[in-house]
Prior knowledge:
The complex is a heterodimer.
Chain A: E1 15-24, E2 32-42, E3 47-51, H1 58-65, E4 73-78, E5 81-82, H2 83-88, E6 92-95, H3 107-117, H4 122-135, H5 151-163, E7 169-173, H6 181-198, E8 201-206, H7 209-215, E9 218-223, E10 228-234, H8 249-269
Parallel strand pairs in A: 3-8, 3-9, 6-7, 7-8
Antiparallel strand pairs in A: 1-2, 1-4, 4-5, 9-10
Chain B: H1 3-35, H2 46-55, H3 57-91, H4 93-108, H5 115-121, H6 128-151, H7 155-163, H8 168-202, H9 212-221, H10 225-257
Helix pairs in contact in B: 2-10, 3-4, 3-6, 3-8, 3-10, 4-6, 5-6, 6-8, 8-10, 9-10
Amino acid sequence: MTAAADSAPAPSAAVSVGRASMVFNAGRVNEVAALTDIELDIQPRDFVSLIGPSGCGKSTLLRLIANLLTPTSGEVFVNGKPAAQARLDQDYGMAFQQSGLFEWRSVRKNIELPLELKGWAKQRRADRANEMLELVQLPEFGDHRPWELSGGMQQRIAIARALAAHPPLLLMDEPFGALDEMTREHMQAELLRICAAAETTVVFVTHSIPEAVYLSNRVVVMSPRPGRITDVIDVDLGGERDEDTREDDAFYATITQVREALRGAEHDSGQPVRGVDDR
Amino acid sequence: MSTAAMNAMRVVRATWPPILFGLAFLGTWELIVVLYDIKTFLLPAPSAILSALADNVGSVWDAVRVTGTNALVGLLLGTVVGVALSFALMRFRVLNELVTPLAVALNAIPIIIVVPVLNNMFSTTSQVGRRLMVLLIVLFIVLVNVAKGLRQVSATHVELMRSYAATPWEILVKIRIPNAVPYLFTALRIAAPLAVITAFVAEYFGGTQDGLGSRITSNAANSRNDVMWAYVIGACVLGLTFYLLAILIENAAGRHQGRTRSTTTTGTTATATPAAPTGVAAHS
Lengths: 279, 284
């Protein structure tokens, strides 16, 4: 075990991962080293994407931050607290590839669920649900059932639910992976607007290079076997990001930079890069 | 044309062919019995059955009440015990591993054969053995389905609840139970007609002679076929009533719950699901 003093988090960090490793099925024949010696600091208001081929451990890293998994060694701090405490305090919201809406609850009741679990009073929950519906620009759909909404709308409700308690951190695991390209680009722009309005730090797992570059101010490039961080690329596209950004030279230059970083990771591990989306 | 009128048209168009076919069938039956002068103890004509029913309507109704009460008591108690047991199975893994294979095996054998054993355990005038039989049949259907509904919740839902730091109790109340509700109604739709059949067949194995099954066997033994058929009509009405009630309850719950899912684990045909949601909005 690493001494706590070694990896004490910077007090200002939103997320601080210190020499974290994750081994599944340790000591058995099917032992898998999913993550090795991960060091990562994320500042408040950062938008950080984790990108890499299938099996590089990017979803595992996200679940370590969420304390849905506990690292085999090393430490994870969220908001300056141990990740376990941050989870109990609901310091983050989470969204997945499946929207994970509860079909027996109305859209409004879905958004209220984390607030119910926090023990909020009814009126306060209703007010916050209305506020979140406004934020994701679906105010007229509060009393609909989730399955009456399109895939993109369901994802927006899932984001509204994740942000309902106003957590400072949003963790997203390929939230737009199941959407078509047009909806996906629309959702990316929406996400940037929502997170700017809510002043949220975001950790975003994706396998799409353009998605990572468009959204992030830092792209963390990972490689498999064992999962580790091979590169961290700062994205500077200057000013507001909008639809024109996608035509921008700097956008393409950064995409190329990320792609080459991924190829470099491939070269290092001797494994072909699979499952990374070049579109 | 108004929506109501169009709906009525659709119902009429869907129902007249089977009704017409049924009437034609009864007419042919009547005709054959009259033309060939078939004796009542072989095959009574529909008109003879109807008049037997009119003559015996009081005692048919009494028999329907006796068998119907047995079926209803067994159905309700079996559901309560089945739901309670499925909660226990979900809570205690050991119990689950002990009981589930047993429940599945018992579901596969013709458990109705234990009726004489149950009858021997209680006095000859008691209905308890029959009700226990219905309870057993219903119990396993409810147990297998509801346990499945409690256990098979989506992985994303469980991760979400853990990210909210939800307790196991909160996960039970907010996810597992709502998830299991449609499974319970599917189980009831399968179990309700089976409860009637079981209550009915259980009377074939002796005991008091006041139910539909006993009346049918005794009238058949005396070659009073027209009266026997009158009791068969009573049995049909009873079975249909139970099935209809189960469907009505399931549909009412389905409307409350939203979309119903296909949760059938036994091979019974699905009923009409509530109308598909209208006004599916496109993403803006």
